[in-house]
Design brief:
It is a single chain. With about 280 residues, the protein is of the alpha+beta class. It contains nine helices and ten strands. The strands form three sheets. Strands 1-6-7-5 form a four-stranded antiparallel beta sheet, with no helix packed on it. A four-stranded antiparallel beta sheet has the order 2-3-4-8, covered by helices on one side. The structure holds zinc ion (ZN). The site of zinc ion (ZN) has 7 residues, from helix 8.
Length: about 280
C-alpha cells in the first residue's frame, strides 16, 4: 500500500479532475459532498491510512476534499495515461469506479469476484471514514515502539495471528503480512498474544518492521501494474500452501482461521507439529 501510494503521488499530484464515474453503485459509501464536487479539483497530495489510500484534493470552491478508497482483498487500481472518453456505465464486469483527469489520464478501480467490498468515500476529513477513525497505530511510524507493541499485546487472550491482522489493533500489517511476520519470527500463529514475554515482543517488533520495510524496498519504484506480482513473489509462506518453505524445505501448510485460512511452516513455527484444523476436526467428529 505504501508503494502504491508513492507511485500514485508521482503520477496524480498536480492533475485536475475532469470527472468521476460510478460503475458499481455499492462502491460509493458517502453522499455529501457529492462526487460532482470533484469536478475541477486539483490533486494536492497522496496519503495512506493502513489499507486506505487518500487522494487529497483542493476543490474548485477552495475546500479540501479527500477521495479515499479501500481496495479490499480482490480490488485493484489501474492507472491509464489515456482514459476512454465515454463515461463508465454500471454493468457487469470488474470495473467499480473511474477517475478521469483533465489531461486524459486517470485510473480505474476494479474488483474481481462477486464479494463487493471495495469502497470509495468522498469526505472533508479522513476521520469521517469509519475504518480510518478506528485504525490502530501504523507499525512504520516512529511512535510504534517495542513498548507500544507490548501494550497492544498485554492481557490479550487471543491468537497472535488474529491480533496482527486486525487493523483496529495495528493498522497496516493485514492478512498476508501477518503470515509472513509470524513465519519470520518462528512463532505459532495460534500462540496467545498475552503469553509473549519481553524478549518475544522485542523480537516480534523487529520482525514486523523488517518485514514491512523489505516489502516496501522490493516494490519501490515499481508502477502500480507490477505491484501485485511483486508482492506475491516476495511472500515466503502466505498463499503458498503445498510449496516448500524457503527457510527449511518443509512443506508449507494451511489451516482455517476465522473467515479464511492462514499458511505456516510447522518446522519453523510449531516445533514440527501441524496445527489442528478446528473446522475440519469438528466435521469429522
Ligand atoms: Zn520452514
Amino acid at each position: 500500500m505504501q508503494s502504491l501510494a508513492a507511485d500514485l503521488r508521482e503520477r496524480a499530484v498536480g492533475r485536475m479532475v475532469e470527472r468521476a464515474d460510478i460503475a458499481e453503485f455499492s462502491v460509493l459509501k458517502t453522499y455529501d459532498p457529492p462526487l460532482s464536487a470533484l469536478h475541477g479539483a486539483e490533486i494536492t497530495g497522496m496519503g495512506r491510512y493502513g489499507k486506505f489510500l487518500d487522494f487529497v484534493t483542493r476543490a474548485a470552491d477552495g475546500r479540501e476534499l479527500h477521495l479515499i478508497t479501500h481496495l479490499a482483498r480482490a480490488g485493484w487500481l489501474r492507472w491509464r495515461d489515456d482514459m476512454p472518453d465515454k463515461p463508465a456505465r454500471p454493468g457487469k464486469g470488474p470495473l467499480a469506479f473511474r477517475l478521469v483527469f483533465a489531461d486524459g489520464s486517470g485510473f480505474d478501480l476494479t474488483e474481481a469476484g462477486t464479494r463487493k467490498r471495495l469502497a470509495v468515500y468522498l469526505v472533508t476529513d479522513p476521520a469521517q471514514v469509519p475504518g480510518i477513525a478506528s485504525l490502530g497505530p501504523d507499525p512504520l511510524s516512529p511512535d510504534f515502539t517495542v513498548e507500544v507493541l507490548a501494550g497492544l499485546l498485554a492481557g490479550r487472550r487471543t491468537q497472535i495471528k488474529g491480533v496482527l491482522r486486525d487493523q483496529k489493533i495495528i493498522g497496516g500489517i493485514g492478512n498476508a503480512y501477518s503470515d509472513e511476520v509470524l513465519h519470520a519470527a518462528r512463532m505459532s500463529p495460534f500462540r496467545l498474544a498475552s503469553s509473549l514475554n519481553a524478549d518475544d515482543v522485542a523480537a516480534l517488533h523487529e520482525v514486523i518492521i523488517g518485514t514491512l520495510r523489505t516489502a516496501i524496498e522490493r516494490s519501490s519504484g515499481l508502477a502500480a501494474a507490477d505491484l501485485k506480482a511483486e508482492k506475491k513473489a516476495g511472500l515466503a509462506v502466505h498463499g503458498r500452501a503445498g510449496e516448500k518453505c524457503p527457510v527449511c524445505g518443509d512443506v508449507i501448510r494451511e489451516v482455517s482461521f476465522a473467515d479464511s485460512a492462514l499458511q505456516y511452516c510447522a518446522t519453523c513455527q510449531t516445533g514440527g507439529k501441524p496445527l489442528a484444523d478446528r473446522r475440519l476436526s469438528r466435521l469429522l467428529k
